[in-house]
Amino acid sequence: MFFIFFSSFSFACRPCSEDVNVYVVKQAKPVFDKSYSSSERNGYVTFQADIVHFKVSNLKVVEVYPEDIPLSVIEEMILKTQYKLISNKPSHIACDSKSQELSFVFRLPI
Predict the structure, then answer these.
(1) Domains of the chain with CATH codes
(2) Which tens digits make up the pLDDT trace of 38-83?
(3) For residue 52, which of 4, 104, 90, 94 has the smallest C-alpha distance?
(4) Fewest Cβ atoms closer than 10 Å to its Cβ: which of 35, 56, 84, 93?
(5) Range list of β-strands (E), the chain
(6) Does the reported pTM lie above 0.85?
């Protein structure tokens, strides 16, 4: 006797594809200590990361300006940001994006 079960809620991921785009749905705001202030109005960060099922891993900060921003603040902002993966191929489920490079601009406390 054999039983075969399947669910319409199950999706199989296909291998990583160059046709997957990463969109930022909602960028998190950086949370600074009250003691931090800057003479600059805006800051920016460029980073590389793997985004798999909307989770960020292998995070590498490439550039931060101004340079005195605590790295923990930047990492927390990146990890709390909401991402969406979209594939350009019809009927392809976008599951992951490897070594994606993104840049964020954000407000700094004055």
Answers:
(1) 20-30+40-107 (3.30.2420.10)
(2) 999 999 999 999 988 778 999 999 999 999 999 999 999 999 999 9
(3) 94
(4) 35
(5) 20-26, 42-52, 55-65, 82-87, 96-107
(6) no
